Amino acid sequence: MRDAVRLMKERRSVRKYIQKPIPKEILEEIIDCARLAPTANNFQGWVFVVVTEKDTKEKLSELATWGKFINDAAACVAVFCEKDNPFHLEDGSAATENIILAAKAYDIASCWVAGYKRPYSEDVRGLLNVPEKYELISLVSLGYPGEEPNPPKKALSEVLKWERY
């Protein structure tokens, strides 16, 4: 099985992490993969804020309704895209997926936390001092796994249709 396919098939959302920092070089490699994600018209209107400071992670975990575990992660990446790009949600989602897959390639676990149009989106933008022209798309916790979840996934036969439904 090709490495990329294996990563996609083995990746799971992890919400428990061991206390071990991620080297800066690896975080940079992960973000380098994010910036190479496809964008509509090659717009590339994004910015990635990597948070490793304990106090800021704690504040993010308090803000994010379903992201309390961010506090225990080694890092959190906030993905922002320019609001005036009509495809900012799609572009930011593609970058978020690249973050998750690149992290998995380094045996780093992750969990995608919704950010787009959430009640806390503007508070996160303000906390991280991101200019107003950007909109939060997602938060991604990163860390070395403290659990190996294996939730059931639907069978291919349940979701695949040929030619028509």
How many beta-strand elements? 4
Shape: globular
Structural class: alpha+beta
Largest sheet: 4 strands, antiparallel
Mean pLDDT: 97
CATH superfamily: NADH Oxidase
Total separate domains: 1
Number of helices: 6
End-to-end distance: 29 Å
Give the H and E element order.
Answer: HHEHEHEHEH
Strand order of the largest sheet: 1-2-4-3
CATH class (first level) name? Alpha Beta
Strand content: 15-25%
Rounded Rg: 16 Å
Kindly identify the CATH topology: NADH Oxidase
The CATH architecture term is 3-Layer(aba) Sandwich
Level of helix content? 25-40%
Protein name: NADH dehydrogenase
Domain Nitroreductase: 9-74
Keywords: Oxidoreductase
GO molecular function: oxidoreductase activity
Detailed description of the structure:
It is a single chain. It is built from 6 helices and 4 strands; from the N terminus they run ααβαβαβαβα. By secondary structure, the chain is of the alpha+beta class. The mean pLDDT is 97. The chain has one domain (3-159): NADH Oxidase, CATH 3.40.109.10. The protein is globular. α2 (24-35) runs antiparallel to α4 (88-105). The chain has helices at residues 3-10, 24-35, 54-63, 88-105, 121-127, 156-159; strands spanning 46-51, 75-82, 109-114, 134-143. A 4-stranded antiparallel β-sheet has the order 1-2-4-3, with helices on both faces. 36% of the residues lie in helices and 18% in strands. Residues 9-74 form the Nitroreductase domain. This is NADH dehydrogenase. InterPro entries: Nitroreductase, Nitroreductase-like. Belongs to the nitroreductase family. Keywords: Oxidoreductase.
